[in-house]
Amino acid sequence: MLTSLFTLASVATALPATSNFDRMFIIVLENESYQTVLADNYFGQVLAPKGRLLTNYHAPNYIAMTSGSTDGVFMDNTADVDKTNIVDKLEAAQLTWKTYQEAYPIASGCYAGDSGTYYRKHNPFASYVNIQSSPARCANIVNASQLSADITAGAVPNYVFYTPDINNDGHDTDTSYASNWLQGFIEPLLTNQLFQNTLFVVTFDESANFLNIDTVHNQIYTLLVGAGVPANTQDNTYYTHYSILKTLQTNWGVGSLTSNDAGATAFNLR
Predict the structure, then answer these.
(1) What is the rounded distance in angstroms from the CA atom of residue 132 to the CA atom of residue 225?
(2) Which Gene3D superfamilies match (predicted)?
């Protein structure tokens, strides 16, 4: 059910999420409960009214978000995963992709360890064997400082996965710290003409209660903004990280990865 954030008025029946955006820009924050994030002024009172708040959204982890399965990876532990992932589907459809990693210790490439405030476990693309073994694919794992240059050049890819560092994502700080960072980061993007048909997905990897990893209870804050998504609305449909995959698959005609994303519900964007 879709509702206004403030008037709670009903909205028309959902339309299929087909060709609604030309870019998906995913920003992943860390380990906070839905209610805690919603209580933050920026997340709840400033950013949420600009888009559609998903009030029944639940999380597995980073690997699930990019491969359609947790693949036995507990929470966001570091792992090497030898399986098909979203990069395979994007490249097969001739869609471009890049992951921007804050505090990444190299300009681009497959870096195997942690470094300072960069944690490999928050970079799922570094986990896939078929990316690790490909220099061309490794070149799409870049330091987040590259984003400014790509914006200036009009070279931001179709699929963007942005990982803040361990402080900005709230993992080693708190919701207020992440909120202040996000406001400074996303607000200029939302008014930039380059992103006028971009779907921004602001989400968390998992709840503060992450040890209870079943998706019934692992509820997290997720907001859709941009790409014509109606402002000041809510959607109480049951979604998970697999819905991110389902939405881009539906939008671009990209095939599913597993039965999890094949059976997931795509976001209602209208």
Answers:
(1) 32
(2) Alkaline Phosphatase, subunit A
Q: Let me know how long the chain is.
A: 270
Cβ-contact 23, 160 below 8 angstroms: yes
Distance CA 149, CA 145 (A): 8
Per-position DSSP letters for 78-124, written without gaps between them = ---B-S--HHHHHHHTT--EEEEETT-SSSBS---S-BTTB-GGG-G
What pLDDT band is residue 13 in, cutting at 50, 70 and 90? Answer: very low
pLDDT at 75: 57
Residue 225 · residue 182 · CB < 8 Å: no
Rounded distance, CA 49 to CA 243, Å?
21
| pLDDT confidence bin for 86, thresholds 50/70/90 | very high
Residue with tokens 């210790």: 105
Q: Is 261 part of the annotated catalytic residue set?
A: no
Separation between Cα atoms, residue 145 and residue 219, nearest integer Å: 31
pTM: 0.91
| Cα gap 94→62, rounded to integer Å | 23
Query: Which of 182, 180, 209 has the alpha carbon at shortest distance from 36?
Result: 209
Residues 105-139: pLDDT tens digits? 999 999 999 999 999 999 999 999 999 999 999 99
Point out the catalytic residue in the list 172, 205, 214, 235.
172
Q: Would you say 118 and 165 are in contact if contact means Cβ atoms under 8 Å apart?
A: yes
Question: What is d(CA 212, CA 219) in angstroms, rounded to the nearest whole number?
Answer: 10
Report the Cα 242 to chain-centroid distance in Å: 11
